[in-house]
Amino acid sequence: MLRFFRTVRRSLFESGKVKKYLLYALGEIVLVVIGILIALQINNWNENNKVYIKQKGYLALIKDEMVNNLDALLTEKLALMSTIHAQKKILTLMLSDTTDISEKELSVLMGQAFSHDVGFQYENGALTELRSSGGLKDIANDSIRNMLASWEGRMTRVRLQEKSLYDYWVKCNDYLEIHGDFRIVAFGSGESGEGQSGEAAGSQGNKPILESKEFENKLILYFWTGQTLRDIQYVELENSIRTLIKMIGRELGTEEKLHFYDERAVFLNGRLNPGLSYGIITSGGVSNWASVGAQGLCMAYPAHQEWGILYITIGYPTSPPRPSADLSKYKKLVVELKGEKGGEQVQVAIKDKDAPDDGSEAKFPIGLTNDWKTYEIDITNSFKGADMANLYVFASFEFGGAAPQNVCVRKIYFE
């Protein structure tokens, strides 16, 4: 090909056709320039494609990390909810005129309130690598790039609040170490780890701590700081993580289904919806007979009671005026239950924010077997009078009679 061009140039030059020769030479130059531009364009396209592939790889890794972070955050939020719930009960006892609670029940509350060091396990390896490599500037989506650039600021605010909560946790435990009796908390007020009773060893128990103004002040600060972490910092971070996952999913052309965390889920996969909490009560005031474990949310209704209720509410159980949620689009309440032996009896109910606390709400009775069974409860026919547009108690389980019952629920959701 090059020999052909040289032959043409020589022929034009030797024939004396200078004008044609110059035009031909100019054409060759133009062809060379066009070739160079095409080569540069191809090279740029290849480089951009490499950056795009690398960017997609980073975004996919960051999305996976954020899904894990969301799971860890909601787990920690649920644990914090249990801690705050126990703190509130202790504060209620301290602020009341009576401390009518057994050492055993107080030990359970203290274990729940002070044994857990809050701080969720955060993954950020992919984001750290992206930032340190300078690859953040290559993220084409402005919204994602700006969100990732400010992510460490979000985490710093959360970590500062967790640190503040940790400091108050230490102060409360330091006080209990000096003035309390951890042996009773660990082993109960009966037999200790050495086979010796707390009373026999001269222990005064932990109930005198309920009279301490110093401990009350420390506990109030611990309680407020935990509430702020749960209701503000954790909520803001959760919303940011959800937003980032959705944006990255759209950018990658994938959809991340976090369906467990939608509003209709009350209790699934071993977790209570992060926006909900549960309370328990019996006719005799026993308040430590429910827990979340491998079987789900399990209720060990105690003996010698007239009745007992576990109720799941939006936010924390509170006196009127109460918060509520609009779930009027749902027609069924679905629960999956089993009894320990079979034959256990439980009544399921829901309540709106204005319903009185007198047991007058409509209830759906269920006789259980010792195998898991799903019950679909028609809301309109079974819970007449409940305003689903202002729902406060998402589900309650009521027991009756003096005989103990062990019941577990694995799924609670609306459809």
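Above is the first protein from milestone M3; the second protein from the same milestone is given next.
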Amino acid sequence: MTTIASRLLFPCLAAAMLHTHAAAAPDAAPAPHDAAEQKTGESVVQLPAGYRWVVPPQPFDLDTMEEISITLEGVGEVVVEPIIEKGMINEVRLGYERGRTESRMKTPTFMVRFADASGEAIRNGPIGIRIHGAAVQSVYHINSDEVLSRAAWFGVAVLDYEGRVERAKAYADAPETENYRVPFLPVVGQPFEFDLPTLDGERMTHQDMLGKIVVYDAWASWCGPCLTKMPEMHKLRERFAAQGVEFVGISLEQPSSNAMARATEKIESLELDWPHLHGFPSREANRLWFNVTGIEGIPRLFVVDRSGILRAEPPTTGRLADAIHDLLEQQPPHAAAGD
């Protein structure tokens, strides 16, 4: 996937984390309440809302910097390894074994944080994620000159499920002021609720889809893996149409004057003739999306049952077919409300 930050461990890793296209979301807007902070002498090193320190900020010293091992409940051992060559930090690797969870929102996200003497975060270079089976490695590429010249503090933080809930609640009231309600931290087994505009100028809410099994597909015109899977999405829609399964796109074009035009052009060229919600009608909505939904990478698929409960987050179209089939066995067409 094309990147949305060090955030989500998506199957199409190479393609897209949304933060590459929208400035790093958790830092993009000030938290509506005090963010986590760690005092270091006279300075304070702050974190985005929801994050907590697992290695509190410590004085940064290249000569003594070495591998750090952390053991976290529910995660196990996390190893932070600085890669130092020719007296320069080239990158920091953070690795752990990813456990199986029923929802991606319960997969932890780690952050390696450098700060200057005042506590201000130093922007690192691009973040890559490598996955080999259950092994996950986040790679923080360092702008060595900037780190060596400015860094006074170094620490590691984590965003876990409880932190995501905290962050989402902190921003949850803001969408109401725009009459724009994004899904609140989608978690399998919980309601998938929203009130969003569509690309054709209408509005859609979760209540419009009650009684139906719905596949929601978060995508964008610039996301290669999103577009690559569209032929298979067509096939799945045709396969399950007779059983009343609905498909709804969530277009996450970055806010700009021609965003809707780009999305519409791609919808027409690929003949994506199903409804499409407009996820980012403004830059404020963009920030709200990341902070309230926690959905930071695409493509992303959600399967919602007839009562509006999120039942599956399949990572591939192959698993999407299985998820739809399983749900139809539990809730066949005749079980739809009003039938």
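Note on the second protein: The chain is about 25% helix and 30% strand.
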